[in-house]
Amino acid sequence: MQQYFHCVTFGEILYDILNDHKEVGGAPFNVAYHLARMGIGTAMITRVGNDENGAGLLAFMQQKHLTTAFVQIDHDHETSTVIASQSDAGEMSYEINEPVAWDFIECSQEAIDVVSKAAWFIFGSLSSRNKVTEKTLLKLLELPVKKVFDINMRPPYVDKTRIEQLLMLSDVVKMNDVEFDTICNWNHIASSEDSLKTIISRYELETLIVTKGSNGAFMYHNGKRYDNAGYKVNVADTIGCGDAFLSGIIYAFINHIPPQEAVDFASKLGAFIATRSGATPYYDKQDVLAISHS
Q1: Where does the pLDDT of residue 2 fall: very low under 50, low under 70, confident under 90, or very high at 90 and above?
Q2: CB of 84 within 8 A of CB of 18?
Q3: Where are the domains of the chain?
Q4: Which of 120, 147, 207, 223 could cysteine-pair with 7, CB 3.0–4.6 Å?
Q5: Is 85 in contact with 93 (CB distance < 8 Å)?
Q6: What sequence ranges are listed for the domain Carbohydrate kinase PfkB (predicted)?
């Protein structure tokens, strides 16, 4: 009998390389890691190469008590690595190689079964850059599960048609402020309070979340807006902060935490991750709650 997982993430797992230092990453993996750290049963559907990096990622998942049952092994394509760099302003940019193993995620019966039994399915747009993984993703999105879309507009992998298709299939969407402006431009509207309502209506969303880096975030949910102005912290790097934020929102929804408290907690989690190197540091919930506005 297959184990039940409350959440399933889908897409890329990889090594981020920053200043010659290698850290495990990939937005869907980061979300899975944080949800699991907070006690939410989480599985990830992904694919790694039959190589040293792939073995390292599998070992890391096992060390962090994340199941590897839904990690496919690719004998033709290598495990993904990404060269990350940080600007003086703290903004991250990424050089993403291709093709890699997660470009070829197959729609296995195991993947269908685990998503069918889950309550939440979390995915991004980057993994759909290749037709093989895109076909698998679209098949899984047909299943009756709450769908959370974390937009990842990583040039040159910004396909308006594909992203809008994924938006139409989603219930909850998270994006950053630059991505929000881009989608507003696609709809020929200015970024404003009214544009939030327009985007939610246009794509038939339940919840829209926009992160603004060090300036905080806001969430539009059930016709109301909830804001957090952010927390001042000593930044190590900002890799994975948005992924941590989304994990905090999902954790709050699962635990029926009120919307404003959800945004506040998610903002604290994102801020805490910024104080550590890499996207997946060790921590517990009390470390996150200790973050304050001071």
Answers
A1: low
A2: yes
A3: 7-284
A4: 120
A5: yes
A6: 21-281
Distance (Å, whole) CA 160 – CA 168: 12
Strand order in the sheet with 21-25: 21-25, 14-18, 80-86, 92-96
Count of Cβ atoms closer than 10 Å to residue 25 Cβ: 27
Concatenated DSSP letters for 14-38? EEEEETTEEEEE-HHHHHHHHHHHT
Read off φ and ψ for residue 219, nearest 5 degrees.
-135, 135
Report whether pLDDT(8) > 60: yes
CA-CA distance, 30 to 19, in Å (whole number)? 20
Structure tokens at 257: 């935490």
Give the pLDDT confidence of 33-68 residue by residue, as tens digits.
999 999 999 999 999 999 999 999 999 999 999 999
Could you give the count of Cα atoms lying within 13 Å of 61 in the half-sphere of its Cβ? Answer: 29
Q: Which of 116, 117, 88, 82 is nearest to 100 (CA)?
A: 82
d(CA 85, CA 237): 10
User: Which residue, among 227, 267, 231, 3, has the nearest Cα to 114 in the 3D structure?
Assistant: 3
CB contact set of 236 (below 8 Å; sequence gap of 6+): 274, 275, 276, 277
Query: 7-284 — its CATH code?
Result: 3.40.1190.20
What is 246-271 written as a DSSP string? HHHHHHHHHTT--HHHHHHHHHHHHH
Q: What is the pLDDT of residue 92?
A: 72
Computed from CA positions of residues 107, 71, 143, 221, in that sequence, does the dihedral angle turn out positive or negative? negative
Show Cβ contacts of residue 56 under 8 Å, excluding neighbours closer than 6 positions. Answer: 15
Position 84 scores a pLDDT of 80
